[in-house]
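**User:** Hello, beginner here. Are you able to go through the protein record under this note? It all follows right here:
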Amino acid sequence: MSGPGQGSRERSTSPAPPLVLMPDWGSDLGQSELPAAAVAAGYDGVELWWPAGRRAQGELAEAVAASDAALALLVTSAADDPAAHADEIEQQIDEIDRSGLPAEHVTLHLGRDHWDVALHHELAVRVVGWRRRFGRSILVELHRGRMLHSAHHSLMLLVEHPELRVTFDISHWIVVAESMLDDQQAAVDLAIARADHIHARIGHPQGPQVTSPEAIDPAIVERHFAWWGRIVDRIRSEGRRPGLLAEFGPVPYAPAGRDGRAVVDPSRSNRWIMGETRRRF
């Protein structure tokens, strides 16, 4: 047996690798099949949309328990009315809380980009309230078309609402700005400081997803890994285990050939993201 402190010194030299999750989009499998499929494919777990109905929710809970897969959840609402939109999302968060599922994070696709800025402030206040009420990691995704649709708009909201936390998917901001955001560093820095989860997809100024991360300008790849690495380092410094979703998606996110099929299989790109993440972090 090692003496006092010896074992802890040895363990501290190797920080836990990030949890790498498999996405559900583009899969033909049912939600209850995805947790085991993710683990079999080498991922630590799966991220998927919260299902409607108690039966589907119960089946998901059983599948997660049986596979020992890590789980993150996504929630949204298609309601056009802002109040109904927020109420529907709150109802889903309440269902998740009552289900007892150990979700790492609940990521919200929240709001619409064209809603009045006052509504975005109201939604931010509600999200902070949900975090306090449910005691969960409830995050708003950086996502075009949503509340945090762009770097400049999100900077304003994050400054005004210091308890608002995010899921970092900067590919959307890159598309909206048609740039690698070199001239919006303050927004990028603040988003990195507030990020508790990463959607790891590599974007470029004309699209949210490169054809293949293995065959693109290395500078673009390195820029994304540098951003993600800052988040990983900060979360580890806070004594927590970082996590990310490998999020290359199917057509139309994936560039398609004349036959309508993806030029590069997104699952290949996601496996590459998984491997690179574990190698680098």
